[in-house]
Every structure is written in structure tokens, then in C-alpha cells.
Automatic annotation (TrEMBL), chain A:
Keywords on record: ATP-binding, Cell membrane, Membrane, Nucleotide-binding, Transmembrane, Transmembrane helix, Transport
Cross-referenced Pfam families: ABC_tran (PF00005), BPD_transp_1 (PF00528), oligo_HPY (PF08352)
UniProt domain ABC transmembrane type-1: residue ranges: 83-272
Any GO molecular function: ATP binding
PANTHER family: DIPEPTIDE TRANSPORT ATP-BINDING PROTEIN DPPD, OLIGOPEPTIDE TRANSPORT ATP-BINDING PROTEIN APPD
Name of this protein: Dipeptide/oligopeptide/nickel ABC transporter permease/ATP-binding protein
PROSITE patterns recorded: ABC_TM1, ABC_TRANSPORTER_1, ABC_TRANSPORTER_2
Gene Ontology biological process: peptide transport; transmembrane transport
CDD domains linked to this entry: ABC_NikE_OppD_transporters (cd03257), TM_PBP2 (cd06261)
Any single GO CC term annotated in Swiss-Prot or TrEMBL for this entry: plasma membrane
Chain ranges passing through the membrane: 87-110, 122-142, 148-165, 203-230, 250-271
Compartment(s): Cell membrane; Membrane
UniProtKB/TrEMBL annotation, chain B:
Cited Pfam families: BPD_transp_1, BPD_transp_1_N
Membrane-protein topology: Multi-pass membrane protein
Main subcellular location: membrane
Transmembrane segments: 12-32, 101-123, 135-158, 178-198, 236-262, 282-305
Origin organism lineage: Bacteria, Bacillati, Actinomycetota, Actinomycetes, Kitasatosporales
PANTHER family in UniProt: DIPEPTIDE TRANSPORT SYSTEM PERMEASE PROTEIN DPPB-RELATED
Keyword Membrane: yes
Annotated SUPFAM superfamilies: MetI-like (SSF161098)
Domain ABC transmembrane type-1: 97-301
Superkingdom field: Bacteria
Organism annotation: Yinghuangia soli
Protein name: ABC transporter permease
KW Transport (keyword) present: yes
Length: 640, 314
């Protein structure tokens, strides 16, 4: 991004900020305020010191719009003339704040090393101090010198800005275009001015607005304490002090003394918020417009249901879990599209596919826990004869006892702040009635069940004291606490070392044999499927593309995607030969074509493939596939 | 044992802060045109009287020697005497410390409870409550405590006469009056504190809600209440505790204003008076006391962190 570009976005930013009503009102108030205070005589006919002892402590009237004080001085006039010292104070403090904050923040982030160390330490030190106390010390040395006070306050505020800009500079420094600028022979000063600073303009403005808001109240506070402008000179803080003197006789004075100040700070705060929001929006807009060239709303994608889908639409009567036509949308975008699958009691079923095919969302959808505010928009999830898809309470009841869950990354799957044993005991007590002691004993049993050596010692440990393999064993123990009839394991070994993977898989098989629990195993690893599963369901771009018993599938895949995935499996790699891969990537949900979703990557694709949605067909009993070339696939496999 | 080591380590590492602040104050004070001796002896004193007082105060020594003498005094618990009243500074500040601590602790408890409750509620319910926290945050920034205090006095003390206008009753004297004298100061100090804590709590709870282990707990049937109150809250507490420390330091700074409004004899009030009167020994002492309170607050934050997060404990 060059300078022109940065300038353009900045203009765009101003326009977007002013599109917000709150920001317009805020700007209008600030402009009015600056105009009215600098040109005060145009707005009021009274002098700030002009006394009228015949009209003291009056409320608002046509003569005195905001009333008068104890000496009969016009409050509007005192407010406007007093605002001048506020403006000067804000300007002084803000200038110091920005100069120090920007300079040191950029320097620390860009140079790094000892400069960074020194600046960060200094900033931390100053951050720890209550600023106002230091300002008071300065004022005790320079009595009544508000300039000194405001410069001090600017210095004391700067560490906040330094910290933010330092962090920003650190990230920008690592970006490519900065390296390119260096190669192009720009000096450090030029790089900072042209490339780094413009990127941080909105942050600096936001922080500046917030700081100005604080300065307004601090300056008024000092005036109130009698440390600013000396009476009879007007100031906003002085007005509050005057009001406090006559609080029992004329409480009204508090209003003109405080409300304009409060409104000014609110305006600065709103302006800061608006700029920040507009900057975020800008970022989001440029991101999404580049990321979704052919972005298409989900509504237009036809539900791909055809005659053959209906054939499997009825839940299997003997299945433990029977998912039918499950459709899930996240943010209005369909990400799972009519998925059907069955798991029989005690059976292990593999759910296979590349990342981004919708496997994890499907498995979380079965549990009714779709991330990112997504929801089930169609289909059934029948567990043990009860449809729980539209019944959150029924679904909540089967979690843990009916269906349990083990996630992919064990090191973030447990609460880091509780000892392992306490979490397990809580899981136990959630599902069965027992006392603390009983729950603890059962927790140790569970740890023993997953082959944790010395369960009593491990129970006292925290997540960060466990290895990945141990953590996954504990996570499995946690899932077993409710004695579930089905375990959904979402890539339970992907994050682990190869040797540990085999142990965890062995553990799963052993537990299954012992308890008769069924397992739905989400994976992209055919080795795991071959090792553990009886049947496999292959997903691609939100749909099931093939379903078969594992032996049959390995012998003769009936969908080119299944075949491609198997060929790309590193377990089958021949030493010295390049691993065959499927060209291209899984299309994102907004890129799904209306025809076969795999056609773009398929070596068998013909024109017909892209023409219309491909239904699931049942070419062989117990197997289904979503490929129109299934006939030739069958012949090649010699299955017919 | 580990905690003791942590306390000692933190206290040692805060020594530089104490040195820098006191040295800074010292250097700054040496810039004062004229000197305290002149203030004490007055305009009509002879040069001899003036020199005597100077020597008495140690002002004829060089700056580093003066600082060293002051540090020695700190160790002995002797911070000199007020130029204004002649009262020993240590005794004076010791009398005033409990007032400020009452204020800060009460305001921290009130704003901590209110802020966390509001933050959790708005994270859970969303909608209008989210906006409420945002509006509150803006008001907390915009409404200065000293003005809010006056508005509260105008209503609750002057108009309705429910609460005392000003003053402070020591806890030992009359616990009920002590509490009554704290209500308005604490409420006026707490507005911005509640806002800051509520906002941090909301953001932190929302962030924790998206964590993997929360999803795992939901998926394994943990009760919603337990997930929220035991697990989300505890994990969300870490950043809130940090903010609580920052809030306590700003409450300490706020005593300068609030104690002045309510005429309370606390550290903030004495700092303000000493500033107006250029009472240098009192200011130096007050800055020292305030810095020590900041150090203790930071220590408490660290200890809370250790209790909440087992990774820090190790």
C-alpha cells in the first residue's frame, strides 16, 4: 500500500465516520464549543467579570440564559470565557501526549533491542503511578502554573499510547512491504513516515480523542481544587467550585457548571468510538470484498434432494444415532447440506474428508453446539429413537450420558484453572448422584481406565503440567464420566505425536470392547479408519459423497473423491515417488457450484457433472455414492 | 512458602519505583524558587535566623546529601514536620491513611461487585444490556467524581437530608455513622470504576465463552450454571483482576477530589491542602505513602493472579 492509497483510505475513513449520526452530533458540539469560546464576545453581551449584585444566584432567564452566580455574574459568559483555558490545556497536554507517544512508540517498536527495553520499562514505571498526584507535586513547585501541569499530564499519559503504537509497529515491521521498502533503499525515517505512520492514523486519533476527554475533566478538577486559574478569572473547574459554595441556596448552578463539560467529554468519547468502529469496518469491508469474489447468499443454493435421498430419509430403526438430511447454516451461509448417516450400537463409524468439508460442524451439530452462532435449519438427529434436532432440552439431556465428545486439541480441551481430578469429579457428579468422596474415587477409576499411571498424583495436576497424550487421555476420561453410549471423537489424534496416536487409538478400541460404546470418529487419516472403523462416511463440501463398509470402500471406492483421498494417504506412499495429491482445494460454502461440487478437481468430470445437482444413489446394497459415473466405477471395480 | 517468596520478590522489585518517585519529587522540589526556610521565618527575619532555620532543615547541604538524610528519616519513620502546622508528617499521614483506605476499599468492593455482575449479565443476555454497559462506560469517562459528588450532595444531603453533607466519622467511634459518611463519597467514586470493570468483564466473559474447553464441557453435559459460574467466570477473572488493580490506583488518585468535596481528612485531601500551601515535607511524605499503597495494590493483584491461575503459581 503506497501513500496515495493510505491517503484515500483516510478520506474514506472521515466520510464513514461522518455517516454515523452520533459522530455528526459530537463533531457539531465540538465545533460549536470551539467557535463559541474563541469568539465568546459574539455569543454573550456580558463580560466574564461583570458583576450585578442586584441579580445574584438567579436561575435561567431571558437576560441570563444560564443564570447568575453569587456575585451576579452571567454564567454563560463565565462558561464561554472559562472554556478558553480548557482549550489551551487540552491543546498543550494533547501535543505533549502525541509527540512523546508517537515518537517513542514508533521508535521502540521499529528499533527493538535496548531502545525498546528502555522505553518499555520507563512506560511501565510511569503507568504504575497515579498521575494526578505527580501533577499536584508539580503544581506545588510551580504554583498556579497550569501549563506546567498540563505538560506533565501529557507526559504521564503518553505511556498508554507508547504501548499501543509499539505493539502495532512491531507487527507492521514484520510485513512484506516494509522489507520491500528497505530493499528499495528508503531510509528508516521515510519508511516510518510513509508506510508505518499512515497505517496507525486511526489508532492515534482515537487515543488522542480519549486522552483529550480525560484532560478536560482533569483540568476542570484542578480548577475545582483551586489549583488552576485563580479567581476571579473564570474556568470550568472554578464554576463547579463556585456552585459547591452555594449548593444549598442555588443547586441549579451545578447544571451550567457541569453539564457542558460532561457533554464535551461524551462528544470526544463518541467521536473516538465512531472513528474506531469506522476503521474496523473499513478493514472488514476490504477483507470480505477480496475474500468473496463470487459471494452468493445461501438461499439461492437449491437444496440438493432427489429421489434417491428420499430412499434413505427414514431413520434406520435399529440405529443408535440416525442423522437425516441435516442442514446447518452459519451466518446465513449453508455449511452442512443434507447430511445423513447412521451409527449402530457399539459400531465405529469414520467421518472422513479434508478440512473444510463440514465434518466438525456436522459432529457439533449432532450435539446441538454449532460454533459461530450457527443453527440447524433442517433435518433430524434421532438418538435412541428420539428426534433431538429441534429440542434443545432433549439434546441437553443426552449430552454426556447419551453422546459424549472428545475434541482435537487436548491442550485447550480442559479448564486450565482447575486440577484434573476436580474437573473429572465435577463431570461424575453431573451425571450420577454421589458425594464428593464418591465422585473423587470414581474420577481416579476413570483415570485408571484410560491407563494414567498413578491416578492420585495426576488428579492433583493442572493442564499445563500434562503432556499432550496425557491430556487427551484425561479428556477421554472426562467424556467417559457419563457412561455414554456414543462417543464423538473429532480428530482425537491429529495434534499428537505418532507414537502417542497409536496408544490413544488402542485405548479407544479397548474402551469400546469393554463398554460396548459406539464411536463416531471424525478424521482425515485413512490409517485410523482402517484400524478402527467398520463403516466410513466420506464428506465433501458439506455433503456426504460416499458411504460404505470400510473393506468395500478400500477395495473399490465408488466416488472419485474417495479414491483421490486414499491415493493421497501418506501411509500408502511408495518411497521415492511423489505422493499423488488431488489438485485444487475444497470450495468454501459461498463457492459451491450447483452441479457436482467435486467436478472442478475430478479427472472424470464431464459436462453433465456440472449441469445439475448430483443425487446420492444406492448402486450396491449398503453403499451409497454421489457420482453420476458410478456405472463405470463399478465396472472398473468388477462389482457388477 | 512459594507465596512468601513471591511477596518478597515483588516487594524487592518495587523498590526502584519507590526510589525513582521519591528522587523525582526531591529534585523537583529543589527547583522551588525561594526555599521553605524563607517561608517559615517570614519576611522580617534576620539573615542569621534564616540561616539557622536552613541549617535546622538541612537545606544548606547538597541535594544528594539532603536526599540521603531524607531516606534515613524514612527508615527511622521520620518524615520531618509540616512547614505549616509543625506537626510531624509521619503522625499526620498515619492518622489520615485509614480514611483513604476506607474509601478505596469500600469503592473497590462496591464497584467490583456491581461491575462484575453487570458485565456477566450483559455478556449472557446481550441486547439492551450490552448497550447499557457501553453507555455506562461513556458516562464513567465523562462524569467527573467531584461534580457527581456535588450533584449527589444536592439531592441526598441538602434536599432530602438522608445523608451527611460532609465529614468523616472514624469506624471505631460509630460504625453506623462511619458507613453513612462513606455512602456518597463511595458512590461518586464508583461510577467510572463500575463502568471500567463491567466492560472488561463483559469482553472477557464473551471471549472465554468461545474457548474450546467450554465447548467440550457443554458437549459432555456439564450444567450451564457450573460452566458459567465456575469455569467461564474463573477464566475470565484474570484480565478483570488486572483492571481491578488499575481501578484501585485510579480510585486512590480520585481521593484527592472526593476527600476535598466531602472535607474528609484523608491522604488525597492532605495532598491537595499541602499543594495549595506549598508544604513540601507533607507533599513528599504523601507521595511516599501513596506510592506504597500503589505497590501494595500491585502486589495484591499478583497474589490474586497466583490464586486464580495455576500457571503463575508454579
Amino acid at each position: 500500500m503506497g501513500m496515495d492509497n493510505a491517503k484515500k483510505t483516510r478520506q474514506g475513513l472521515a466520510r464513514r465516520v461522518l455517516r454515523r449520526p452520533a459522530a455528526v452530533i459530537a463533531v457539531a458540539w465540538l465545533v460549536l464549543l470551539v467557535a463559541a469560546t474563541t469568539a465568546a464576545p459574539l455569543f454573550t453581551s456580558y463580560g466574564a467579570l461583570e458583576q450585578d449584585l442586584g441579580n445574584v444566584l438567579e436561575g435561567p432567564s431571558a437576560d441570563h440564559l444560564l443564570g447568575t452566580d453569587v456575585l451576579g455574574r452571567d454564567l454563560l459568559s463565565r462558561l464561554l470565557f472559562g472554556g478558553r483555558s480548557t482549550l489551551v490545556a487540552v491543546a498543550e497536554a494533547l501535543a505533549v501526549f502525541l509527540v512523546i507517544g508517537v515518537t517513542l512508540g514508533l521508535l521502540a517498536g521499529y528499533r527493538g533491542g535496548w531502545v525498546d527495553w528502555l522505553v518499555t520499562r520507563g512506560a511501565d514505571l510511569m503507568f504504575a503511578l497515579p498521575g494526578i498526584v505527580i501533577v499536584l507535586v508539580v503544581l506545588s513547585v510551580f504554583p498556579g502554573n497550569l501549563h506546567a501541569a498540563m505538560i506533565t499530564f501529557g507526559i504521564l499519559g503518553a505511556p498508554g499510547l507508547i504501548r499501543i503504537l509499539r505493539a502495532q509497529t512491531l507487527t507492521i515491521r514484520e510485513e512484506l512491504f516494509v522489507a520491500a521498502a528497505k530493499v528499495a533503499g528508503l531510509t528508516h525515517g521515510q519508511i516510518l513516515r510513509r508506510h508505518v505512520l499512515p497505517r496507525m492514523a486511526s489508532i492515534i486519533i482515537v487515543q488522542g480523542a480519549l486522552f483529550a476527554a480525560i484532560v478536560v475533566t482533569i483540568q476542570a478538577g484542578l480548577g475545582f481544587l483551586g489549583l488552576g486559574a485563580q479567581p476571579p478569572e473564570p474556568s470550568w473547574g472554578g464554576l463547579v467550585a463556585d456552585a459547591s459554595q452555594s449548593i444549598d441556596r442555588a443547586p441549579w448552578m451545578l447544571v451550567p457548571a457541569g453539564v457542558p463539560m460532561v457533554l464535551t467529554v461524551v462528544a470526544l468519547g463518541l467521536l473516538g468510538d465512531a472513528i474506531r468502529d469506522a476503521a474496523i469496518e473499513n478493514w472488514a469491508v476490504s477483507r470480505s470484498s477480496s475474500a468473496q469474489p463470487g459471494g452468493r447468499p445461501a438461499e439461492r443454493i437449491p437444496a440438493q434432494r432427489a429421489a434417491a435421498d428420499d430412499a434413505v430419509a427414514a431413520p434406520a430403526p435399529d440405529a443408535l444415532l440416525s442423522v437425516r438430511d441435516l442442514t446447518i447454516e452459519i451466518g446465513g451461509l449453508r455449511v452442512v447440506d443434507g447430511v445423513s448417516l447412521d451409527v449402530a450400537p457399539g459400531e465405529t463409524v469414520g467421518l472422513v474428508g479434508e478440512s473444510g468439508c463440514g465434518k466438525s460442524v456436522t459432529s457439533l451439530g449432532i450435539l446441538g453446539l454449532i460454533p459461530g452462532g450457527g443453527r440447524i435449519t433442517g433435518g433430524r438427529v434421532v438418538f435412541d429413537g428420539v428426534d433431538v434436532a429441534g429440542a434443545p432440552e432433549a439434546m441437553a439431556r443426552i449430552r454426556g450420558t447419551g453422546i459424549a465428545y472428545v475434541s482435537q486439541e487436548p491442550m485447550v480441551a480442559l479448564d486450565p484453572t482447575y486440577a484434573v481430578g476436580r474437573q473429572l469429579a465435577e463431570a461424575v457428579r453431573t451425571h450420577r448422584r454421589c458425594d464428593r468422596k464418591g465422585a473423587h474415587a470414581r474420577a481416579l477409576e476413570l483415570l485408571d481406565l484410560v491407563h494414567i499411571p498413578d491416578p492420585a498424583a495426576v488428579a492433583r495436576r493442572y493442564l499445563h503440567q500434562l503432556s499432550g497424550g496425557m491430556a487427551q487421555r484425561v479428556a477421554i476420561a472426562l467424556a467417559l464420566a457419563g457412561e455414554p453410549r456414543l462417543l464423538i471423537a473429532d480428530e482425537p489424534t491429529t495434534a499428537l505425536d505418532v507414537t502417542v496416536q497409536a496408544e490413544i487409538l488402542g485405548l479407544l478400541r479397548e474402551i469400546q470392547e469393554r463398554t460396548g460404546m459406539a464411536v463416531l470418529l471424525v478424521t482425515h487419516d485413512w490409517g485410523v479408519v482402517a484400524d478402527l472403523c467398520r463403516r466410513a462416511v466420506v464428506m465433501y463440501a458439506g455433503q456426504v459423497v460416499e458411504q460404505a463398509d470400510v473393506d468395500g470402500m478400500f477395495a473399490h471406492p465408488l466416488h472419485p473423491y474417495t479414491g483421490g483421498l486414499m491415493a493421497a494417504n501418506p501411509h500408502h506412499a511408495v518411497h521415492g515417488e511423489a505422493l499423488p495429491t488431488i489438485p485444487g482445494t475444497v470450495p468454501a460454502p459461498y463457492e459451491w457450484p450447483s452441479g457436482c461440487r467435486f467436478a472442478a478437481r475430478c479427472d472424470r468430470a464431464t459436462e453433465e457433472c456440472a449441469a445439475a445437482p448430483v443425487p446420492l444413489s444406492l448402486p450396491v446394497p449398503g453403499r451409497s455414492t454421489r457420482c453420476i459415473h458410478v456405472g463405470s466405477l463399478l465396472q472398473e471395480g468388477g462389482l457388477r | 512458602m512459594a507465596i512468601l517468596r513471591l511477596v518478597v520478590r515483588r516487594l524487592l522489585s518495587s523498590l526502584p519505583l519507590l526510589f525513582i518517585v521519591s528522587a523525582f519529587t526531591f529534585v523537583l522540589v529543589s527547583l522551588v524558587p525561594g526555599d521553605p526556610a524563607r517561608t517559615i521565618v517570614g519576611q522580617h527575619a534576620t539573615e542569621e535566623q534564616y540561616e539557622n532555620v536552613r541549617a535546622q532543615l538541612g537545606l544548606d547541604e547538597s541535594l544528594p546529601v539532603q536526599y540521603w538524610n531524607w531516606l534515613e528519616g524514612v527508615v527511622r519513620g521520620d518524615l520531618g514536620a509540616s512547614l505549616f502546622s509543625g506537626e510531624p508528617v509521619t503522625a499526620m499521614l498515619n492518622n489520615r491513611l485509614p480514611v483513604s483506605l476506607s474509601l478505596i476499599i469500600a469503592a473497590t468492593v462496591v464497584s467490583g461487585i456491581a461491575g462484575v455482575a453487570l458485565g456477566v449479565l450483559s455478556a449472557r443476555r446481550g441486547g439492551a444490556l450490552v448497550r447499557t454497559v457501553d453507555v455506562l462506560a461513556l458516562l464513567g469517562l465523562a462524569v467527573p467524581a467531584f461534580w457527581l459528588a456535588l450533584v449527589l450532595i444536592a439531592f441526598f444531603a441538602v434536599q432530602f437530608r438522608w445523608l451527611p453533607v460532609t465529614g468523616y466519622v472514624p469506624l471505631g467511634e460509630d460504625p453506623v455513622e462511619w458507613a453513612r459518611s462513606l455512602v456518597l463519597p463511595v458512590v461518586s467514586m464508583s461510577l467510572s470504576a463500575v463502568a471500567i470493570i463491567a466492560k472488561q468483564t463483559r469482553d472477557s466473559v464473551l471471549d472465554t465463552m468461545t474457548k474450546d474447553f467450554i465447548r467440550v464441557m457443554e458437549a459432555n453435559g456439564f450444567r450451564d450454571r457450573s460452566i458459567l459460574y465456575r469455569h467461564i467466570l474463573r477464566n475470565a477473572a484474570l484480565p478483570v483482576v488486572t483492571v481491578l488493580g488499575v481501578v484501585m490506583v485510579s480510585l486512590l488518585a480520585g481521593t484527592v477530589f472526593v476527600e476535598t468535596v466531602f472535607a474528609m481528612p484523608g491522604l488525597g485531601g492532605v495532598t491537595q491542602q499541602a499543594t495549595v500551601q506549598h508544604d513540601i515535607p507533607v507533599i513528599q511524605g504523601a507521595v511516599l505513602y501513596i506510592t506504597v499503597v500503589v505497590v501494595v495494590v500491585n502486589l495484591l493483584v499478583d497474589l490474586a493472579y497466583g490464586r486464580l491461575d495455576p500457571r503463575v503459581r508454579a
